[in-house]
Amino acid sequence: MPLLQTKGEKDTAAGPNPLSNVQMELLKLYSTDIKEKDLEELKKVLADYFAHKAIKEADRIWDQKKMSEDTMEKWLNEE
User: Is the whole model's pTM more than 0.85, yes or no?
Assistant: First the structure.
């Protein structure tokens, strides 16, 4: 029996593992005991990745709703 199971796998003794696929991959990575500098760089890469995804989605919604600078000005002046 594997030490860790992916989400959705069943283990009759302990039940399904509540960890996501991302958590599983991070556990594999962190078990290698990387240097603190590398850990900081990895955290920055992850933060940049998710920030980029959020910005891309915001841009998509902005375009889809045909928003403009006027839209932003109205939002800024709302009470």
Answer: no
The residues spanned by each domain of the chain are 1-33, 34-76
Alpha carbon distance 55, 44 (integer Å): 16
* Length, in residues, of the chain: 79
CB-neighbour burial class of residue 38 (10 A; exposed 0-12, middle 13-18, buried 19+)? exposed
Cβ contacts of 11 within 8 Å, gap of 6 or more = 1, 5, 17
Rg (CA), the chain: 21
Residue 11 pLDDT exceeds 70: no
